[in-house]
Amino acid sequence: MVAAKKLATYADLVALPPHVIGQIVFGTLHAHPRPAFPHAAASSALGEELGPPFKRGKGGPGGWIILDEPELHLGADILVPDLGGWRRTRLREIPNAAYTSLAPGCVCEVLSPSTGSLDRGDKLKVYAREQVPHVWLVDPAAKTLEVLALDGSSYRVAEVFTEDAKVRAIPFDAIELDLSILWAT
C-alpha cells in the first residue's frame, strides 16, 4: 500500500525561510534559494526596459502594470514568475494584498539550472490552463529570449532571439529591446 501524498499548503510557503522562494505547483512545494546574480541582473534589466514605455507610457504606449516576482494564486497553484504584466484594462490598479488571483497577460521566467525544468514544464501547464497569452523564457547562460504564445490549450514558440539582437517581441513589440542589456554584467 502506498500512502497518499500530502498536498502542500499556503502555510508550508509561509513557513519557508526568508531567503527562499516557494511555489506550489500541482500540489507540490518547490523551494529554491534566491536567484544568482546573472538571473537577477537579467530580470531587473528587463523590468527596467519595459517599465518606462509600458507601465509609465514614456517612449511607448503605456497601459500595463508590470511587477517583479508577483505572487499568483491560480486555482490551487501558487506561482512566482520573475516578472508579471497585466493590461490595465484587466487590472486597473495594484491590489493592496500579498497576491492576486487574476492571471497576467504576460509572464517572464528567467531560467536557471535549479528552476528551468519547472519553468518549462508544470508552470507552463498552469499558465496555459489560466489562459496567460504570452510567456517569455529568458536564459542568461544561453543568452536567449524565447517568446511563447498561447495557441489553444498549449504554447507555441512564436520567436527565439539570441545574443545581442535588437528585437520586437510580442506583446511588447511597440519598442525595440536590445538583448545585450539583459546579459550585461
Oligomer: single chain
Reading the helices and strands in chain order gives HEEHEEEEEHHEEEEEH
CATH superfamily: tt1808, chain A
Number of domains: 1
Number of extended strands: 12
Would you give the CATH topology? tt1808, chain A
What structural class should be given to the helix and strand makeup? alpha+beta
Radius of gyration: 16 Å
- Mean residue pLDDT: 95
Main sheet characteristics: 6 strands, mixed
- CATH architecture name: Alpha-Beta Complex
SS summary, helix count: 5
Write the layout of secondary structure elements.
Layout: H1 10-14, E1 20-25, E2 28-33, H2 37-56, E3 64-68, E4 72-74, E5 77-79, E6 83-87, E7 106-110, H3 116-120, H4 122-129, E8 134-139, E9 144-151, E10 154-162, E11 166-167, E12 177-178, H5 180-183
Fold and architecture overview:
Strands 3-6-7-8-9-10 form a six-stranded mixed β-sheet. The chain has a two-stranded antiparallel sheet with strand order 1-2. The chain has a two-stranded antiparallel ribbon with strand order 4-5. The protein has a single domain (10-183), classed as tt1808, chain A, CATH 3.90.1570.10. The longest helix is centred in the N-terminal third of the chain and has 20 residues, at 37-56. It is built from five helices and twelve strands. It has 185 residues and is an alpha+beta fold.
The gist of it:
The chain has 185 residues and is of the alpha+beta class. Helix content is 23%, strand content 32%.
